[in-house]
Write a structure and sequence with these properties.
heterodimer, A: 114 residues, mainly beta, seven-stranded mixed β-sheet, four-stranded antiparallel β-sheet, B: 111 residues, six-stranded mixed β-sheet, five-stranded antiparallel β-sheet, globular
Chain lengths: 114, 111
């Protein structure tokens, strides 16, 4: 049973480019969470999605960031016009449903903006 | 607002016991979690407390006092592989599933 998968593992973008980060939850999981970890800082919640719905986006920056979790395929975190401050590790976590409290984390995507 | 505090770094000796404390102030409470994160890797789930008391799982135990806004993670019989960051996280409100994390405690186990 494969765990949470994220790709790419490492992503380098120049300032002003777009970054697309993908997350495939564990089999049978329909809830996805995105977190950001800046260097030497803790994980910060960004957004919580279920299939085709954004449930909680209270941690998402108001501009340039968007997320989706379509009916088919992985969840996507999209960052437009990246800036150096976007350089961080982006972790995705999944859980099976509202009855479960545990979130299983993927290996993360390390975004470097040059 | 949300505030979760834990020590930045700790050092302990192989075979010993170490206690990592976490205090929190959140607008609500619906569970406290401990995760382990090795450098460059994903956080892995260690424990979950929602009621006061001690939860034991092998060499790891976690304690919660909701009235004090306090938790600790206890690691026994320390091994070198336990060198990692330990993250305290709180789910702060009924119906809200996002986790609020502390900055983590970096534990160094020495021979």
């Amino acid at each position: 049973n494969a765990g949470v998968m994220q790709n790419p593992r490492h992503l380098v973008r120049r300032r002003g480019q777009e970054a697309r980060l993908r997350c495939s939850p564990m089999k049978g999981h329909s809830h996805v969470y995105w977190y950001r970890q800046l260097p030497e800082e803790g994980l910060k919640f960004m957004v919580y999605l279920q299939k085709e719905n954004i449930i909680d986006e209270s941690g998402m920056p108001k501009e340039r960031f968007s997320a989706e979790f379509p009916k088919e395929g992985p969840s996507i975190l999209r960052i437009q016009q990246v800036v150096r401050g976007d350089s961080a590790a982006y972790f995705c976590a999944s859980s099976p449903g509202t009855s479960s409290h545990e979130q299983y984390f993927g290996p993360g995507t390390r975004l470097t903006v040059t | 607002g949300q505030n979760i505090d834990q020590p930045t770094e700790m050092t302990a000796t192989e075979g010993a016991i170490v206690q990592i404390n976490c205090t929190y102030q959140t607008s609500g409470f619906n569970g406290l979690f401990w995760y382990q994160q090795h450098a460059g890797e994903a956080p892995t789930f260690l424990s979950y407390n929602v009621l006061d008391g001690l939860e034991e799982k092998g060499r790891f135990s976690s304690f919660l006092s909701r009235s004090k806004g306090y938790s600790y993670l206890l690691l026994k019989e320390l091994q070198m592989k336990d060198s990692a960051s330990y993250l305290c996280a709180v789910r702060d409100g009924a119906g809200r599933r996002a986790l609020t994390f502390g900055s983590g405690t970096r534990l160094q186990v020495q021979p």
